[in-house]
Design a protein that fits this description.
single chain; 214 residues; alpha/beta; Rossmann fold; 7-stranded mixed sheet; 3-stranded mixed sheet
């Protein structure tokens, strides 16, 4: 096990590196227009997500919880489309708070808007026996190649996001999901998702990646 101070140092370095790379590309310029109360971008997380989408080239991303990641996803899809116009993807992003859905919508540069749809969808409580959590009230149609779980907001007694359970029948081999933190959600999904997944935890970035195998 890596000592916690070393993990903290590694995360600081990853954030600095990721922010530097994204700023050199001009991909963080949108941050300056976000309100003072908005969460600051985490360069390590955003660079990881950008590189992953550039590598996987998904046709449909579903994102649970909008924010800076939404813009970076759209940017990666835009860059994929420049490389191959026949492989243009899109993202559908959900937010359980209308005001933050509006903030994210206003953050998206005009040239990325065609790749991005941001929806306000309330989150509702759900109880599965002793497992308490939330799910979004409705989910879109479509077969996602990539799912990013960073919403809805959780509470101390409700720590699980159940949305992947409702979407799992649509997942196909090659599907990838990244859960940002949310360790109770990760534990639940590892136990209850059907299918054969390779699961990898990134201790530095505090995320967990699920890849659906054949």
């Amino acid at each position: 096990m890596i000592a916690r101070p070393l993990l903290g140092l590694a995360r600081t370095m990853a954030n600095a590196y990721g922010e530097r790379r994204l700023r050199r590309l001009g991909y963080l310029d949108f941050v300056d227009a976000r309100p003072a109360g908005a969460l600051a971008p985490q360069g390590g997380d955003l660079w990881f997500l950008y590189c992953l989408i550039r590598q996987l080239k998904p046709r449909l991303i579903m994102e649970l919880g909008s924010g800076c990641s939404t813009v970076i996803f759209a940017q990666a899809l835009h860059d994929n489309a420049k490389d191959d116009p026949n492989n243009a993807g899109r993202i559908i992003s959900f937010d359980g708070m209308a005001e933050w859905a509006d903030v994210t919508r206003a953050s998206v540069p005009a040239h990325l808007a065609p790749y991005c749809e941001i929806r306000y969808v309330p989150a509702v409580e759900e109880d599965r026996g002793q497992d308490l959590g939330y799910r979004y009230e409705e989910l879109p149609e479509g077969t996602p190649d990539f799912l990013y779980v960073d919403g809805p907001a959780l509470q101390p007694k409700r720590k699980i996001c159940f949305d992947a359970m409702y979407l799992q029948d649509r997942f196909r081999p090659g599907f990838t999901m990244v859960v940002d933190g949310r360790h109770d959600t990760v534990r639940y999904l590892r136990k209850h998702l059907s299918g054969n997944y390779r699961v990898r935890r990134n201790l530095i970035l505090h995320n967990t990646r699920f890849d659906l195998l054949k």
